[in-house]
Fold this sequence. Notes:
The protein is mainly beta. Helices cover 6% and strands 50% of the residues. A hairpin with a 6-residue loop joins strand 4 and strand 5.
Amino acid sequence: VQLVESGGGSVQAGGPLRLSCVASGYTYRRHCMGWFRQAPGKEREGVAYIDGDGSTTYAASVKGRATISKDNAKNTLYLQMNSLKPGDSGTYYCAYESGTTPDLCRRRGPGGYFGQGTQVTVS
């Protein structure tokens, strides 16, 4: 499985941003995909997850400001974030795991493959 993120950059606080992740090499209907982020000096944290049936889960810090979605025809995962805050800055990683039950996906997100990350800076 290969995951390639894009869409990061420098944005002003209060603005929007959409991240994309093109995935290849996976075929399992039962899977979990998601976005994680890591700020300098901090642990990686889950931002949003989506399972094979389209059910979504959001971290409390982004709920109401973020939307995770995927286009199965394009094998692309998205993360739309609005009302960005400086605390949203960090490296954002796309992740994928096959065979994850919906409950596990909701509780801890994907734990298999990760992309290289895309940097987001909010100022």
